């Protein structure tokens, strides 16, 4: 089962900057991604606009923050109000809205490594996680910083 956070992060990571792959460039891959998440795929251009807007909003430095206006519909059920999500984009935006309402939107982050920029959900108690992976991006950055510091000392 997909959580709101896992759905939003998976959607944000349909672009892999390290490998130079964008799943939305291939309609078959986009359709398969949507089906794997039990969703109906949107037009790739619509999905890209939503993804880029969401990535910019959580800190992707390559993208300008742009307004995104997608109407969401609600239905009243016996269990209470629910968002109607007929397609992938509205399902992701509904999940992002729920994260915001719960105060968890701030846990969505972009890895600051220039060669990564992977989206992740910060599950740390104090919301202080910086890197998508301390083992990969965090260690790489620590090694770069150490080399820069030691090079300055030795020159």
What does this protein look like?
The protein is of the alpha+beta class. It is built from 5 helices and 6 strands, in the order H-E-E-H-H-E-E-H-E-E-H. A two-stranded antiparallel sheet has the order 1-2. The protein is globular, with a radius of gyration of 18 Å. The mean pLDDT is 88.
Strand order of the largest sheet: 1-2
Number of helices: 5
Structural class: alpha+beta
**Which ranges are low-confidence, i.e. pLDDT below 50, for 5 or more consecutive residues?**
none
Cα-atom radius of gyration: 18 Å
Question: Helical percent range?
Answer: 40-55%
- Strand tally: 6
Q: Could you give the distance between the termini? A: 55 Å
Q: How many strands, what sense, and barrel or not for the largest sheet?
A: 2 strands, antiparallel
Backbone shape:
globular
How much strand content do the residues show? Answer: 5-15%
**SSE run:** HEEHHEEHEEH
- Calculate the mean pLDDT score and round it: 88
Can you describe this structure in just a few lines?
It is built from five helices and six strands, in the order αββααββαββα. The protein is an alpha+beta fold.
Would you spell out the secondary-structure blueprint of this structure?
Elements: H1 4-12, E1 15-16, E2 21-22, H2 27-36, H3 44-57, E3 73-77, E4 80-84, H4 88-102, E5 108-110, E6 119-121, H5 134-154
Antiparallel strand pairs: 1-2, 3-4, 5-6
Helix pairs in contact: 1-4
